[in-house]
Amino acid sequence: MNQPQWVLLPVIIPLAGAAVGLLLRHQRRVQAYGSLGVILTALAASLFLLGRVYTYGPQVAQLGGWAAPYGISLTADLTAALFVVMAQAVLSTGFIYALGCNDRCSRFPTFYPLFLTLSTGLTGVFLTGDLFNLFVFAELLVISGAALTAISDDPLGLEAAYKYFLISLLASLFLLVAAGSLYVSYGTLNLADLSARIAADPTRPLTGVAAACLVVFFLVKSAVAPFHFWQPDFHTVSPTAVSAMLSSVVVKVGVYGLLRMTTLWFVPFAAELRAFLIVAGLVGVIFGGLTAVGAQHAKRMLAYSTLGQIGFILVGIGWGTPLALTAALVYIINHSLIKSALLMIAGATASRAPVKSAAFSALRGVGKFTPLGGALFLLGGLALAGIPPTNGFISKLTLLRSGLALGDGWTLAGLAAGSLFSLVYVGRAYRNIWWLPAQGEIKPKAGGDRLLAPAVLVTLSLVLGIWAEPFVNLCLQAVAWMLNPAAYIALVLGG
């Protein structure tokens, strides 16, 4: 049973909430708590959408009453619905963190409306069935993220926002070139229609150009080395509530695109794309792990850690078997939960330091005043490294099993080294902040950011690790549908 309104609600609710929030800009508390209510409502709608997709099958909304491929389609299969729920859940905790933090920027009149437009853009990217509207939603995401970083309390926030905006503008140019090339070649931008036409005739002159441009766009979005150069500065100086979103769920835009390219949009080129992704993933695992080990700043360490963790996901997509893709999906969701939690813990600890900074030199000894933060950081770090009973263990175990089934020993060796790096940099951070004594007397600030949001995320990772079977089965079903592009195409085009 297809009910298109449930596909629209996760996009419309935060967008409408942002508009109302602007009208309430002079009533800060009403705006803040009203925005939290909006994002929780969007999360509830996303969960309901996931339930409908699981029960009745994928849901499609053809906007304006125009049938595909002439109109604009929004499509929710299990993969898209899982990504939307993941995004809305993590964004909800970002709102909770922002409400309990001491950052001055959270009292800026447009802070919460921008947060809601960030949610709109992110959700739209996952649900859109049209390449040009992928560009529209991605631009909304970029503008929201850049503006939220520009109003950061950190004086370097404006510089980082400019850097992010300009690099994203360059990436968007590649997306527009891809869209133009595909439209010239096939006369459509509907993704299901494009998939069918590319599968029927992949030899058009501009098809390879379009595929290459799309790969560059998604690599920049997911901060894959060597396209990562904007990411550490941007995530280090962003407000904690924002950087926790950017480094966890926003980078999944690129991962989602690469996943769709290899299973739906460019199936004739999947073998070459997957071989490339395995190499890019291994480079990210090693480079990201080594740079995280050497970082002297907790947020910068976690930003470089993202390069390594995304590398694990790319290897899973590159292997391309049902088990490997399931491992990638489980890994994507675990990383989103844990990376946002760890960044929130780092920000909350920095808010207690005499000089607010997440540099290890400023945080040394501060951890003894936040024992709950230390316990949560340790559990989150174990999840990042893949230690039981967290969901991180489930994702890495599933990835290991898929690699063993393929007999790819060299790649598995690289992933093992990356896991070891994760243990090293997480242990080093814990030692510097919560174990080593302070150098001299410390007078921590009273209050500090609250730890409710990261506690919720870490608890969720533990629940998904201990009670993993239903979640893994859900991801297996999503992958089974994903590997059947003909069914997706028929659903959207009405065949």
From TrEMBL:
The keyword Kinase does not apply. Pfam families: Proton_antipo_M (PF00361). GO terms for biological process: ATP synthesis coupled electron transport. Residues 129-413 form the NADH:quinone oxidoreductase/Mrp antiporter transmembrane domain. It is found in: Cell membrane; Membrane. InterPro entries: CPA3_Na-H_Antiporter_D, NADH_UbQ_OxRdtase, ND/Mrp_TM. Keywords: Cell membrane, Membrane, Transmembrane, Transmembrane helix. Its main location: membrane. GO terms for cellular component: plasma membrane. Belongs to the CPA3 antiporters (TC 2.A.63) subunit D family. This is Multisubunit sodium/proton antiporter, MrpD subunit. It comes from Levilinea saccharolytica.
